[in-house]
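Holo model, heme C. Inputs:
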Amino acid sequence: MNRIMILIGGVVLIGLFAGCNREPEEEKPLYSSTEPAPSAPVSTPRTHPVTRKTRNTYQFYCAQCHGIDGHGKGINAPHLTVPPRDHTKADYLETRTDEQLFTAISQGGLAVGRAPCMPSWQHTLDENTIHSLVSYIRELCQCKSL
Ligand code: HEC
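Output:
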């Protein structure tokens, strides 16, 4: 069972997570979700609004660890030594600035003094997408930047 979980949950950037995984990984594409995209772009007053693309990006790249609803219970979560952050929890996220969240996503957990199991996405996602992911996390936690 565990093995199957890893096959499904095995992450694309496997090399980056050495030291975070508890068991040997296998290189398999992980994303097979065929869930329909959430409806229409949601307009927010933020500079980088949350769009359908933002939500799809989160489901594609983040949900395997952070969970499809952002609660931190993604399929890969049990295999990480540090639990993925719960993006719906305001009490932590309101102690972080948007810049800190941006840096965490862009450069990875280590860049903000957090665990390296949180990968760096700057070579995968463009800046606008990362900004909109910050907006999306603010939407999930219903909280503001410090
Ligand atoms: C391989 C699993 C994994 C993936 C994939 C992943 N994360 Fe994370 N993420 C983590 C872990 C683990 C932490 C917690 C780090 C800590 O608390 O030390 C974290 C923490 C975070 C944080 C909080 C940083 C802080 O200040 O504590 C943000 C924001 C975040 N992730 C966003 C994202 C976004 C956006 C994506 C998708 C583009 C993503 N993560 C993909 C594992 C992952």
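The radius of gyration is 15 Å. Residues 4-16, 39-45 have pLDDT under 50 and may be disordered.
Archived with the compound record.
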